Amino acid sequence: MPPSGRAIDSGAVRLGLSESEQELQAGLRSWLASALPGLPDPPAAEDWAGRRRFDTDWQRRLFDAGYAGISWPRAYGGREASPGEQLVFLEEMARNRAPNIGVNFVGQLHAGPTLMAEASEEQKALHLPAILRGDHVWCQGFSEPAAGSDLASLRCRATRDGDEYVITGQKIWSSFAQVADFAEVLVRTDPDAPKHKGISWLIVPMQTPGIDVRPIRTASGSSEFSEVFFDEVRVPVTNRVGAENDGWRVAMVTFAFERGTAFVGEVVEAMRLLADIVALAKQSGAWADDGTRAEIGRLAALFDALWALTKRNVSEAAHTGMVGPGGSVLKLQLAEAAQDLADVGRRVLGPAGLAIDVVGGPGGLDGRHVMSERLRSLGLSIGGGTSQIQRNVIAERLLGLPKEPPWTSR
Ligand SMILES: Cc1cc2nc3c(=O)[nH]c(=O)nc-3n(C[C@H](O)[C@H](O)[C@H](O)COP(=O)(O)OP(=O)(O)OC[C@H]3O[C@@H](n4cnc5c(N)ncnc54)[C@H](O)[C@@H]3O)c2cc1C
């Protein structure tokens, strides 16, 4: 079952929802009851214009109803919800099967928060409301073919020409680049400086001449991410966030958000899938199998623990503005648990699990969904820093083990 909305905050354990949490829950429930039935069907995976429209329309509805940017400060158009309220919001959205964040992921969960922390007032005013309203979609141009885990080796170059940077180079694995309006891009602005010291963080409008986006088709059949080529792309110097050559520090802020609360929705979604699998197992007779029950029990306990960690991370982010290594623990465990969850889903579906062309299988769970979750869960152990890199972070920052040699960075 999806988790309860109880929050753990500042060491105080409450057994029920606070008044403000109850108010939010009731308001959201009644709004969702009227907003969800009128929604069109979600577009096909490769209908990118349709996906953008569907996700940004939903974002606009959230904005108009006062539910966009649930944790963002009011000054930037958000709701400034407490950690407990944020958790109630996420639970209700998942419980009611509201659309997920989709192509708004980068803008909402890490580019926007990075701008709030690091950008100038002009940059904030220009971008934050547009992200919240669903007017602007963002993507991330950090990784390169030879710079993933060792991101500081990036070579995409930005040369200063008066009031502009001229960018030349290549990025890869940029999620949703084909529908993005803006990208957060790391570029090398000083090739002679030590590698962490010569990087800058730029806002790049994706329609600028010289940008070529080439989608990459994945194992699931969808092109979630792209290669992005820059050929003498000119962007104003005023698009830089943070000082010139201080981009590595700004990127660390982005990562703290990317690994921190960005995966909270994934935990809630996984708990929802587990509940569907249990319902189907009981209906189909698979529940009689001791091994299946034991595996489901193990995963239920693991997701309960992940939900408790989520509460801790959300509380920490609310108090300090950022999540520490708890974000790496969450992401590491979540990636592994999500793979096991899809495996048990396939086992419970039995032969129907192989019917990946059939939508709407027994109990509403279909082979296509479970199989695509299995493939997508592999990516969870890579995107936003691989599981090995999360282990390095945990070893160094939580366990106090000796540091890795300096060439490893992400
Ligand atoms: C679903 C998904 C979405 C993504 N979205 C984006 C995006 O929007 N924008 C973007 O810029 N990038 C994105 N990425 C790219 C992602 O950040 C990189 O794939 C990731 O950082 C790993 O880099 P790499 O692929 O170059 O692998 P490599 O760094 O080459 O790693 C290869 C293997 O070596 C291991 N390894 C490397 N260094 C170490 C070390 N020091 N210690 C132990 N093991 C190590 C890795 O864990 C991995 O198993 C996405 C990736 C995925 C899967």
What does this structure look like?
The chain has 410 residues and is of the alpha+beta class. Helix content is 46%, strand content 14%. Strands 3-6-7-10 form a 4-stranded mixed beta sheet. A hairpin with a 2-residue loop joins β4 (157-161) and β5 (164-175). α3 (83-95) runs parallel beside α7, α4 crosses α6 (247-259) and α9 runs antiparallel to α11 (387-398). The radius of gyration is 21 Å and the shape is globular. Mean pLDDT is 89; it is low at 1-10. It binds flavin-adenine dinucleotide (FAD). The site of flavin-adenine dinucleotide (FAD) has 22 residues, from β3, β5 and α11.
Descriptive tags:
alpha+beta; 4-stranded mixed beta sheet; 10 strands; 46% helix; globular; binds flavin-adenine dinucleotide
Element layout with pairings:
Layout: E1 8-9, E2 12-13, H1 19-35, H2 48-64, H3 83-95, H4 105-118, H5 121-133, E3 138-141, E4 157-161, E5 164-175, E6 182-188, E7 199-205, E8 211-216, E9 225-236, E10 240-241, H6 247-259, H7 264-284, H8 290-320, H9 326-349, H10 367-380, H11 387-398
Parallel strand pairs: 3-6
Antiparallel strand pairs: 1-2, 4-5, 5-9, 6-7, 7-10, 8-9
The protein binds flavin-adenine dinucleotide.
Number of strands: 10
* Global mean pLDDT: 89
Order of strands, widest sheet:
3-6-7-10
Overall shape: globular
Could you say which structural class the secondary elements and strand pairing correspond to? alpha+beta
Q: Termini, distance in Å? A: 35 Å
What is the percentage of strand-forming residues?
A: 5-15%
Question: What's the story with the biggest beta sheet?
Answer: 4 strands, mixed
